[in-house]
Specification:
This protein is α/β, with parallel strands linked by helices and 435 residues long. The protein has 16 helices and 17 strands. Helix 12 packs parallel to helix 16. The longest helix is centred in the N-terminal third of the chain and has 21 residues. The structure holds pyridoxal-5'-phosphate (PLP).
């Protein structure tokens, strides 16, 4: 059973109780927050890049490597291998439950969101009359570029839905999805503009035209929950590391009948029932999904770490978590709005739905790269980490007319004090650089 972290009440004796999010209890789960970074306290505001890892995940990984022996059961069949295989399947079950999949067989392990998207894009059974893919200006390069590659080779036509001011244009999306559309690929939460996208409506539009939808949940799941069946997306991708799990492990959820229709993105060990000589070639009996899509030895330890990260993630009270993160975004966006030297990306009213705020310089004295270093070095007590640059969202930056931005992103463990420390440091930088 999931262990719920405490929810404390702002007013113990009052009724009805309004639960607040006990961020201090959660912060004790993360060793890096109680240690020193470059000799200073860490103010980690780069969770959109990767989430902090809890002590429990680190322990689980160490335990797995300390105690396991033998490669998973699709190869050797001795007891040790069966135990290793059970770890993989436990991770698969945890991921299936987390996403509300109808079965663990709808979960394919990948190395991350990037590989999951490439798998779908490059092995989708595009039909003769359906050779178009629709993506959006909000996409991370890991979604945009696989489709671009295919378009460049003439294998499909790529259509890009605009997102003026960082908000998806649903009317344009409706026109772009036609009877020739095979796939729509859409982020659920932009990693640069913040907010969330109307994925439910896009799925409904696609369904009406008989197209499939791939939802990129890389940024969404750290502070939102997904219900794959309610959303009715055909494919969903996410990375373990953005949820506090290990690097190099990710998940592709897919409806079972579609996973079995995907071509083989990679072939190899663990994917076949038999291989027989046949004439000058081979006769191969492939396994069903997910095995047929998981060639090679999988990351058993990664699956164990993912399962552990998900235990902590699902233990967080969801409504209180969202309220907590929305409060952080509100506080930060409110502070940023006071500075005419900057321009916040995305529409102000959309930001609270997400977990990050990005801004670009208006004043020529503001350099995002310089500011990033200033945050690391200026304060003798604190090391503040944010991300500066284009965040692999080059297209969105171009469409917003911005060369580079500063992204401040929150995790469940982020605090109002951290948002305030960032705003104080920003004020100090502006006083120096933008006089
Ligand atoms: C929205 C979004 N999609 C996809 C990715 C790619 O994730 P990964 O590099 O873990 O494969 C990222 C990573 O930052 C992201 O933010």
């Amino acid at each position: 059973m999931a262990r719920h972290l405490p929810i404390h009440s702002a007013c113990g004796g009052c009724s009805p109780l309004k639960p607040a999010f006990d961020v201090e209890a959660l912060r004790r789960e993360y060793p890096v927050l109680s240690g020193k970074t470059e000799g200073k306290s860490l103010v980690y505001l780069d969770s959109a890049c990767t989430a902090l890892k809890s002590g429990r995940v680190a322990e689980r990984l160490a335990e797995f490597y300390r105690e396991s022996a033998g490669c998973g059961g699709r190869r050797s069949t001795h007891l040790l291998s069966q135990r290793t295989e059970a770890v993989l399947e436990e991770g698969r079950r945890a991921a299936a439950e987390f996403l509300g999949a109808s079965s663990p067989e709808e979960i394919v392990f990948t190395s991350g969101t990037t590989e999951a998207v490439n798998l779908v894009a490059r092995s989708f059974p595009y039909g003769e009359g359906r050779r178009e893919a629709v993506v959006t200006e909000l996409e991370h390069n890991s979604v945009l570029l696989p489709f671009h590659d295919l378009a460049e080779k003439g294998e499909l036509e790529l259509r890009i839905c605009p997102a003026p001011e960082g908000r998806l244009d649903l009317d344009a999306m409706e026109k772009l999805i036609t009877d020739r559309t095979a796939l729509v690929a859409l982020t659920r939460a932009s990693n640069a503009a913040g907010g969330v996208t109307p994925a439910e409506q896009v799925c409904a539009l696609a369904r009406r035209r008989g197209a499939c939808v791939l939802v990129d949940d890389a940024q969404y799941l750290a502070t939102h929950r997904e219900d794959a069946q309610a959303l009715d997306a055909d494919f969903i991708a996410f990375s373990a590391h953005k949820l506090g799990g290990p690097f190099g492990v990710g998940v592709l959820y897919g409806k079972k009948h579609l996973l079995n229709r995907l071509g083989r993105f990679k072939s190899g060990g663990g994917t076949v029932r038999s291989v027989e000589p046949s004439g000058q070639g081979l006769s191969v009996a492939w396994l069903d999904a997910p095995a047929r899509l998981e060639a090679g030895v999988p990351d058993f330890g990664g699956a164990a770490g993912l399962a552990e990260a998900l235990k902590l993630r699902v233990s967080l009270p969801q409504d209180a978590l969202r309220e907590h993160v929305a409060g952080l975004v509100r506080r930060l966006a409110g502070g940023l709005a006071k500075h005419p030297e900057l321009r916040v990306l995305g529409r102000a009213e959309d930001l609270e739905q997400g977990a990050l705020v990005s801004f670009a310089p208006v004043h020529p004295g503001f350099s995002p790269a310089d500011f990033g270093l200033f945050l690391n070095h200026e304060d003798p007590e604190r090391f503040i980490a944010v991300r500066v640059g284009e965040h692999c969202a080059h297209l969105l930056h171009r469409r917003l007319g911005v060369e580079a931005s500063v992204r401040v992103s929150f995790g469940p463990y982020s605090t109002q004090e951290e948002a305030d420390l960032f705003l104080d440091a920003l004020g100090a930088y502006l006083r120096e650089a933008c006089r």
